[in-house]
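Database export, one record per block. Field names are fixed; values are copied verbatim from the stored entry.
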Amino acid sequence: MRTAAYQGDVGPEEAWKALSESDAVLIDVRTRAEWAYVGLPDLSPLGRQLFLAEWQSFPTQQVDPEFAGKLVAALGEAGVGQEVPLYFICRSGVRSAAAAAAMTAAGYGPCFNVSGGFEGDRNEAGHRGQINGWKAVGLPWTQS
């Protein structure tokens, strides 16, 4: 789905395909606590780098007003140009949509939101990681 703010929403499988077939970049915008305790997408089978950039910081959950500037600097240091497709992922696809919009506004793109995120929606028992999202579809991930 294309939105006015960014290129559109894609499923985790489509993001994985783009990462494996192009110079696309995956950016995880969850918090440091989530990276440490829940896990991270593992791009090592593709020989690719995962970028980590908090959209909001724990515990206040305030949006980082310097998010775009910090990410622009990190991408620049890694030699990632403004025209490289950027795929944003969070827990369930909400924060990553906002991050995709912010980077589109900063002149990057195309920017995509990974729908379902890393953990996906809750099931009837209130657990994530089983209905949709990166983990549920069986894509590689790692946990410290």
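Remark 1: The chain has one domain: 8-142.
Remark 2: The chain has four helices and nine strands.
End of record.
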